[in-house]
Design goal:
It is built from 2 helices and no strands. The chain is mostly helical. The chain has a single domain, classed as F1F0 ATP synthase subunit C (F1FO ATP Synthase). It is elongated and about 60 Å long. The relative contact order is 0.19. The model has no long low-confidence stretch (mean pLDDT 94).
Amino acid sequence: MELESIKSIAAAAAIGIGALGPALGIGILAGKAMEAIGRNPEATPKIQTAMILAIAFTEAIAIYALVVALIIKFV
């Protein structure tokens, strides 16, 4: 295999594996937030604010994986 194809496989693996954790985290987070809102609808604004903030931090991990994949691919 030539170097370019190895880089492409490595970049695909980096983003694939790097996006798996945040995807699971966001799914669990949203599910638990919906359960909490279902149990206590009056607390929706507080729960929603915390949920959106946590999703933003979790999504940052996926962005780091994307940056690593781009570095592997183009450097």
